Amino acid sequence: MFLxxxxxxxxxxxxxxxxxxxxxxxxxxxVSAALSVASGMGExxxxxxxxxxxxxxxxxxxxxxxxxTLDQTGLSILEQxxxxxxxxxxxxxxxxxxxxxxxxxxxxxTWFDAVRTVSPWWQVDxxxxxxxxxxxxxxxxxxxxxxxxxxxxxxxxLRYGDLERRFQVAGVVTTGGPEDGQVFxxxxxxxxxxxxxxxxxxxxxxxxxxxxxxxxxATEIEAALPDAQVKSVRQVALAxxxxxxxxxxxxxxxxxxxxxxxxxxxxxxMTTAVLERRREIGLMKALGAAERRIAGLFLAEAxxxxxxSGVLGYGLGFALAQAIGQSVFASAIAxxxxxVPATVGTAMAVTLLASLLPVRRAVxxxxxxxxxxx
Length: 374
Hints:
This protein is α+β, with helices and mostly antiparallel strands. Helices cover 56% and strands 18% of the residues. The strands form 2 sheets. Strands 1, 3, 4, 5, 6, 7, 8, 9, 11 and 12 form a 10-stranded mixed sheet that branches. Strands 2-10 form a two-stranded antiparallel ribbon. A hairpin with a 2-residue loop joins strand 7 and strand 8. The radius of gyration is 34 Å and the shape is rod-shaped.
């Protein structure tokens, strides 16, 4: 009997029910989109910010109170073999000061394939050096090239102590930073020239901070490399976390506003239903219907609205999340199973809470008064 009354009530007021479903569906869609995007946003934002460079730097521990090995330039060094055992992806650097044409010049040895991953903003006019053991070619910063009068295709002679090596300039590097005044060769060539085979001064590491806190990663690296100190590039790390927090807050606030508007729509629909059915409610109470049964009838209608809105809202929200993912992150948003019950539960909670006041008015109907037409 209860289901028959509920079904008849929904059919008779289908136009108002549809309006309420549309209102709650919009709110549920935003909730679904927000949860879907937020679930993978941290990683996607982290990957986007990796274009701004490494967020962890590995350097030798300072000589104060600790033993450290120094190369001929006075720079502390790290053993490359220890790095290979502790890290999987990184860009090592070895710095030295050489001479060319009687002028001092900073030379930097590195792995250029790793640099292209860690520092993707580097612009090279010419060709990149692809092989890590290339000892014949070099890249030169744009300011150093102007100072030395060099360009791609020229030859540069680097002297370090008693050693002298000739390199062909493969390309000119532009970064807008100190790299513009340096000469770059492969790590193997720099180590050979400086007499520091198997050693480096600095290591840049790019870590997705959304997957694990940078502090935890730094602690693990320091535990594996007792002679190294790991420093986070604070500006990049803070920017990553702040951007994620702000976007999540924005999505949450928009969802709350739309859900509040949807709740008002449901409340108006249920209130109208109570006013239209006052005589029916009075008759039910006069025939002995308990107040909890009448309340249950209206709450069941609200739950039906919430269920339908939640299911529709999830589908619409997931489509919206895909559009956001493609336009903002240029990648798809992964399907998260837990978002379905979260969206449906939110929609049902909104409709049930919005129906509490109309339900109180329904159970407060006095049969004698409404049946007399007052």
